[in-house]
Design a protein that fits this description.
This protein is about 35% helix and about 20% strand. By secondary structure, it is α/β, with parallel strands linked by helices.
Length: about 450
């Protein structure tokens, strides 16, 4: 099917990715119908169980700048310069994310950002946003998008071609493609769950350093806290579902406060209503979704979490979805057919989202455990020295992911593996010395690392 200006396009899901994509499509002159199962998020409280805070980094910023939205988003952003690591019995230590002033990430409230994107979408007269509208799936042979109006109870159809599904990790569109044999889906649930808690602002402001992502790493689990614009922090406990130290062991409410006092002694006093919050807030699951293919001919495309949900430990779920939107909009400039556009999009993005899914899992181990390891910290310090000496060749993997959108996720994974091999070789040669051999480093970097590539 040919791509035509003013053509009707359906977008299913008005979350962050769907709202941004609808804006980009409306800017190009398409007649966008945006369907959302929830009520209008500008009215009422956010949906329970959804992450309150998100980390906005360079890939997401590039997409928002591309859409002309960054100046409106900036007031929602809180700069985080690094990880503030809280060990038991030791002062908290800041581990900077990068070495340059711009190498920071930003805490942003999901609900506030979603409201802003929806308000921006509604500025386009050619965009229709329908809340309380449940998508029951995509009927590809019948070229019908199956919808249900919650207010009236009416079931109805809209033309399917073209539809872009941004309806999240539990995508109804993806499920309908799977039922029809048009897509295979593999879900890898993590055996750890999470629960969000709120650290209220103190009478004199923030109770924690406001420009850091706070981590209480405890090897098999961790607590984190991200700042909010009102001086509060959103804390998230990541813990195994079952086992000797798990959510199962905290099912007895009397165990919650002793657990926090023992494991997070400097955080526990900041949560005077801990037991009440624990009972009130849901325990949520995490996992990775693998789908193949992401599109059905020229009818429908899965995008963002609907295609490739990942665990949250690299702070890249939103950023990867926004990069999806940026990529699709860029490809629209060169493609004349929806089927070819969808195929090109999947071809460009598949290896990259597989890479960030892998790195997100690996980063959980880094956050909850390796930040406590002296060898890891020594290698991190060496990596910063090598980056200063070879800025075009040696860029730490975290920096490539978070601060270099011109370097793809797949390339960051590949180069990161080579750089880790170099650091391991230097560590082996150095033994217990805090210093590495510069001549060996120079040789390894010049022979094994090419100039950075997209």
């Amino acid at each position: 099917m040919s791509i035509r200006r003013a053509q009707p396009v359906s977008v299913v899901g008005a979350g962050l990715a769907g709202a941004l994509l609808a804006i980009l499509l409306a800017r190009r002159g398409f007649a966008v119908s945006l369907y959302e199962r929830r009520r209008d998020p500008r009215r009422g409280t956010p949906e329970a169980g959804r992450s309150i805070n998100l980390a906005l980094a360079a890939r997401g910023i590039r997409a928002l700048e591309h859409a002309g939205l960054m100046e409106r988003v900036r007031p929602l952003m809180i700069e985080m310069r690094g990880r503030m690591v809280h060990e038991v019995g030791r002062p908290a230590v800041l581990l900077p994310y990068g070495q340059r002033a711009h190498e920071v990430i930003y805490s942003v409230e999901r609900a506030a950002l979603n409201r802003l994107l929806i308000e921006e979408a509604l500025r386009f007269p050619g965009l229709a946003l329908r809340f309380n509208t449940l998508c029951n799936g995509a009927d590809v042979p019948g070229d019908a998008l199956q919808l249900h109006d919650a207010a009236s109870g009416r079931d109805y159809h809209a033309p399917l071609t073209p539809t872009i599904a941004t309806d999240g990790a539990g995508s109804a569109v993806r499920a309908s493609l799977q039922r029809a044999g048009l897509a295979s889906v593999r879900e890898e649930p993590l055996d750890h769950d999470y629960k969000e808690l709120t650290i209220a602002a103190g009478a004199d402001g923030c109770l924690l350093e406001p420009h850091a992502l706070h981590i209480w790493p405890r090897h098999g689990f961790m607590l984190i806290a991200l700042p909010n614009t009102d001086g509060s922090f959103t804390a998230t406990l990541f813990l195994p579902r079952t086992g000797p130290v798990s959510f199962a062991t905290l099912a007895d409410a009397s165990e919650i406060e002793p657990f926090f006092a023992r494991e997070f002694p400097d955080a526990a006093p900041l949560l005077p209503d801990l037991r009440q919050q624990f009972a009130r807030h849901p325990q949520a699951h995490m996992g990775t979704v693998h789908t193949a293919p992401w599109h059905a001919a020229d009818h429908v495309l899965l995008l963002g979490d609907a295609a490739h949900a990942i665990v949250p430990f690299h702070g890249q779920g939103m950023n990867a979805a926004f990069e999806d939107c940026y990529t699709l909009d860029r490809l629209l400039e060169t493609q004349a057919e929806w089927g070819a556009l969808f195929a090109d999009f999947e071809r460009e993005r598949r290896a990259n989202v597989a890479a960030i899914a892998q790195m997100a899992i690996e980063n959980y181990g880094e956050m909850r455990e390796r930040v406590l390891d002296t060898r890891f910290l020594r290698q991190q310090a060496w990596a910063r020295e090598l980056e200063r000496e070879f800025p075009e060749r040696f860029i730490p993997r975290y920096s490539m992911v978070m601060f270099h959108p011109e370097i793809s996720y797949a390339e960051a994974l590949r180069r990161g593996a080579v750089q880790q091999e170099i650091l391991d070789a230097l560590s082996q040669h150095a033994g217990d010395s805090p210093c590495f051999d510069w001549a060996s480093a120079d040789h390894l970097i010049r022979t094994r690392l090419s100039l950075k590539a997209p």
